[in-house]
């Protein structure tokens, strides 16, 4: 497996994905595609219907002689022919004549890979919808939980934690739309023969391909060329973009769970050990796995771009590479999604620490609030200049911002002390954070209910 694992990986439910990536599952999928091909050819009169029926009956992995397959591998040096030979041996002599009729290795292997990836993709969507539901819960529950907004690593103006979750939801909904939109291009059927021009089958070959596509529930490629790899790159790009959003969430959890922030923490079960030498350690295990696997996933698409540009009608170097990197991308994404689902479901929000940090600058973060009041009277530029001088004075001299403001005659003339104190409270300057959080959670729930 190409993902990066740790002890946490053993506790997570992969929803059957890893089983789909086993050799046994691969061989059975090859058989399933060969059956679809034979059935289509039988229906269209290309091969006898009886042969197609017998092929379907014998297309079970337990009927394959894997010892014999390994012996043939040693002799022929081909990755697919040994499988075909033992499948032929598993059928009666007459039906065996029609196995893999008019097809080439990559027709079966690439169609099989599409079929397997489609099944995994469905589980990816199930993970993603659960993550969105978890974040919708957070957005609603923490819609009014005030915290410091941050830009460039410094306090900006106040927001709520629900708003932060809504921002993540917004970007994940884009990722969901992207993942659904590419399905028609990524999960396809190809049965065009050696170079994709139906040389050995002619017009009936197109009909066969279309029927195989119907049987497998995946559209047929317009031109079933083995040298078309852009849909695979597009899918890996979609995975990378999805991983990037989850990476962002994990980075923030990783950073803000540091004791100096203390705003959130991963869910923790008693007995979990963080360090072999430091008994007190409770490490962000879910987050670190998301971050590491996402960083590795990003690198795969660039490799695909180079290989996709290979010339001519087929190239085994590209076939080999895309088999490898697409599988690796799926493995990495599985680990990321498993961790992200548990992270968002069990995330602990420390409201007291969020409030404490929001008040850390003693009202300085609300300087825009005061500036906008003056802007209505003296214009934005002059208002910015006035409040800037007072804010920087407080920051550089380490004076209480309230005292600096109250010492200024313009401020004293504009506000009573009570009014000023209210304007300096973070909870009084969160804009539409709460409304946006609740509305986004609502949209999120409506969207995932349709999937």
TrEMBL record:
GO MF annotation terms: lyase activity
Keyword line: Lyase
Transmembrane segments: none
PROSITE patterns noted in UniProt: FUMARATE_LYASES
Domain Adenylosuccinate lyase C-terminal: residue ranges: 362-441
SMART domains, sorted: ADSL_C
InterPro entries: AdenyloSucc_lyase_C, Fumarase/histidase_N, Fumarate_lyase_CS, Fumarate_lyase_fam, Fumarate_lyase_N, L-Aspartase-like
One family name in Pfam for this protein: Lyase_1
Protein name (database record): Adenylosuccinate lyase
